[in-house]
Amino acid sequence: MVVNKRSLLIVCSCILFLAQCIYVIGIFTRKPVEVAVEVTTEIPMNTTTTSAPVIVKDILPGDHITEFIPPFVPLLNDYVITENYNLHACIVRKSMSQLTTNLMCYLSNTALYEDRNRTLSDTWAARKGSCDNIAWSAYAPLYENGTMSMSRMTKLAFIRHPESRFVSFFVDKCINTNSCYGCRDLHCAVKLVYDRLMNHVQNRHLIDQSESELWWFDWHAAPQTWNCDFYKHLTDYHLIKIGTSQKDRKLAMKQLQIALKTANVEDKYIEKIMADTLVSDTKHGTHQSKSNLRILQQVRTDPYVRHYLHRIYYFDYVAFGFEIPEVYSADLPEYPLRN
Q: Which InterPro entries does this entry report, sorted A to Z (predicted)?
């Protein structure tokens, strides 16, 4: 009887072990999900045929963890440093990059900035020439002579909600400037972004400053975790999460105020920065445009778009503490079992 129980236990254990093995093998060999997506064909103006919905089959990335864009791929470091305050700001594309630069220009030479009647809402073109004493370093955060070190600097970066950041990217680059390799609709854009970023992941490309034009698209579309050497210094930063509403901006300004006080910036300059930032909005900004609102609505309701964006920016939600949208709650990445 004892032998039979022991044999039964061994058999059950073997069956359970085999089931786990089959599950793990299935995860790594799973085929992408095939999804039918309805689109509308574009009919030339000189034809009498009316446009009609057609079914196009597209192979979407699955739910295994390896089909999500991973965090902390070191794609780009774009720093601005002010020697006056030993202050270091990392510029994250499509995340208040102009505001960051204007802020650092102002602190580098407050008198010059005010004499030239510059504001924190200046665009790139308007600000040109107002940053004479600023230190730029796109690939290393130190002066060439080594007088400043990363560990001794107060570091800050503006972080934006992944959803609104992508909408800003799409409206600005794909609609306003037509810089998305011909993509003018969200379905095309999300797939293009996913494929290009996954290509970086699989091939581990390194940034080549001489070929910056080839990387320009990816700099703006990549997850925010790919910036600023966050894979090494994430916990060292004052991360300022900034939104588009006045309430969000006020909360962000409190975080910015803490960072500036840590860097020993004088109160009179902090007060000016707080006041100007709450009312500033660069002409380059897109969040108040009608296009932005229309695209944002599609991002929140289109299953195809959500499917890709979830796999592109999931780890931005996790790394920076954003609440994961409820629509993603049943679509989290699956991890292989561990022994």
A: Chst-1-like (IPR007669), Sulfotransferase (IPR005331)
